[in-house]
């Protein structure tokens, strides 16, 4: 695939492929990293792909998060409700906790995001008691767990402000429940079974993706 240089071109690729990971881990499949110039990253310019990922989420063009294999990716908003149904856990977070499959931190993180839609990551860490440097690994692990079950998605970014209300430091990533993100952007939830959702997704991928990429996602969804 030829290199792209604008956000609009990236939108076209996501719409065409359905899912575009940030880095290359799906064989024979484009990633945002592979279709852009390395020199364009982290420049802070409009052509910076690092900034596009949050714009995708904020504008409702594509969902952004670590939905499987713990890898960050963009999923076309039209397909995201179907991915949610295919990847979601058979038990809610409280049931997983009761069965010993989730930690109390997982439950608390879910509850705080549910009660504070669009909460930024710094505030979220404080709210769940994982704000120290030593707790970062546990916080990241828990947050990825909730994204892998499609319960939580990145909502976009917010300006980091100081006590005087002035911008201070890097922008901060914000989180919201996937169901809220779907509703905010006028999408419809999927009511079919998880297995039927997986079949529909695989049929869609088979039409668009290379044979190698399709085989990879078959295995990935089968193990999820």
Tell me what the structure shows.
By secondary structure, this protein is α+β, with helices and mostly antiparallel strands. It has one domain (7-223). The chain is built from ten helices and six strands; from the N terminus they run H-E-H-E-E-H-H-H-E-H-H-E-E-H-H-H. The protein has helices at residues 7-17, 49-58, 80-87, 93-98, 104-115, 121-127, 136-148, 178-184, 194-208, 211-223, and strands spanning 19-21, 62-68, 71-76, 119-120, 152-158, 172-177. The strands form two sheets. Strands 1-3-2 form a three-stranded antiparallel β-sheet. A three-stranded antiparallel β-sheet has the order 4-6-5. Strand 2 (62-68) and strand 3 form a beta hairpin. Helix 9 packs antiparallel against helix 10 (211-223). Pfam families: AlkZ-rel (PF24741).
SSE inventory with pairings:
Layout: H1 7-17, E1 19-21, H2 49-58, E2 62-68, E3 71-76, H3 80-87, H4 93-98, H5 104-115, E4 119-120, H6 121-127, H7 136-148, E5 152-158, E6 172-177, H8 178-184, H9 194-208, H10 211-223
Antiparallel strand pairs: 1-3, 2-3, 4-6, 5-6
């Amino acid at each position: 695939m030829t290199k792209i240089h604008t956000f609009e071109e990236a939108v076209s690729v996501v719409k065409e492929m359905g899912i575009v990971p940030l880095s290359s881990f799906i064989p024979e499949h484009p990633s945002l990293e592979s279709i852009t110039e390395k020199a364009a990253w982290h420049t802070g310019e409009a052509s910076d792909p690092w900034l596009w990922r949050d714009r995708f989420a904020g504008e409702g063009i594509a969902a952004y998060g670590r939905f499987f294999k713990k890898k960050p990716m963009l999923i076309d908003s039209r397909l995201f409700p179907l991915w949610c149904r295919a990847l979601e856990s058979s038990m809610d977070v409280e049931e997983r906790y009761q069965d010993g499959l989730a930690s109390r931190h997982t439950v608390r993180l879910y509850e705080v995001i549910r009660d504070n839609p669009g909460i930024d990551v710094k505030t979220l860490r404080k709210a769940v008691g994982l704000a120290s440097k030593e707790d970062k690994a546990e916080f990241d692990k828990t947050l990825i767990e909730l994204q892998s079950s499609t319960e939580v998605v990145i909502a976009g970014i917010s300006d980091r402000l100081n006590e005087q209300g002035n911008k201070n430091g890097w922008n901060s990533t914000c989180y919201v429940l996937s169901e809220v993100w779907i509703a905010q952007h006028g999408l419809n939830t999927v009511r079919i079974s998880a297995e039927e959702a997986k079949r529909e997704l695989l049929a869609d991928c088979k039409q668009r993706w290379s044979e190698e990429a399709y085989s990879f996602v078959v295995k990935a969804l089968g193990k999820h």
